[in-house]
Design brief:
alpha/beta, single chain, Rossmann fold, 223 residues, 5 strands
């Protein structure tokens, strides 16, 4: 399992940084008439940690969608080091009136900290409930817990995403890293930065290619 380890921020700092980022993005980028706006809501995997501006998840996904005939506005709502608790704390003010849909990718940092899956579930539930209250379409992107926490932890954590997707009737993508396939550790590491944790530009490209069709479904749901 590839988890975020290097750039963790304290809960309070992450929330504050998220507010600053969100305020800048939503104030500085005007809504594009006639185009749907999707909020990519996550942690450093969404934010694009360690990558050049056009190499991160959001710009690569935006280009993939455009190349496949779908012109949308994707807002980067990724905050490095964020947990599901941080996401739950900032979701309401992140869902500005121009947001039509949201991609939720949170939970990796919860796993690293060994947070009780019940707590992570409750936080993600709050995020999805907020989206529902705002009338926002959601694509929930799952994460897979590593086996070193034990089978009970893994089973409890892995069930969070499909259960909540069913409860809230959201679109669901099983695993953020699915695009990297089932290759052995040595081959998979070719798609990661030197930290062995965050995908490099080529890794993001593969992740986007796998995730993209599900995002197309999200776009179709709001158009």
């Amino acid at each position: 399992m590839h988890l975020i380890t290097k750039e963790f921020l304290s809960y309070g700092v992450a929330v504050l940084r998220g507010k600053v980022i969100a305020a800048f993005l939503f104030a500085a980028v005007p809504a594009w008439a006639g185009e749907a706006t999707i909020l990519a809501f996550g942690d450093s995997l969404t934010q694009g940690y360690g990558l050049l501006d056009q190499q991160g998840l959001v710009p690569q996904l935006d280009k993939w969608l455009e190349d496949n005939g779908h012109k949308v506005r994707i807002v980067n709502g990724g905050v490095s080091g964020d947990t599901t608790a941080g996401g739950a704390a900032r979701v309401d003010w992140s869902l500005t009136p121009d947001v039509d849909a949201m991609i939720v990718t949170l939970g990796g940092n919860d796993m690293l900290r060994g947070i009780d899956p019940a707590v992570s579930r409750d936080n993600l539930d709050r995020i999805l409930a907020a989206a529902q209250a705002h009338g926002i379409e959601v694509l929930l992107v799952g994460m897979k817990a590593p086996g070193n926490y034990g089978p009970d932890y893994k089973a409890a954590f892995d069930r969070i995403y499909p259960d909540l997707a069913e409860t809230y009737e959201t679109l669901y993508f099983e695993d953020f890293f699915a695009g990297l396939g089932d290759a052995g550790p040595a081959e998979v590491q070719d798609y990661f930065q030197p930290d062995g944790i965050h995908p490099n530009a080529e890794g993001v490209k593969k992740i986007v290619a796998a995730l993209g069709p599900k995002v197309v479904e999200l776009v179709q749901n709001i158009q």
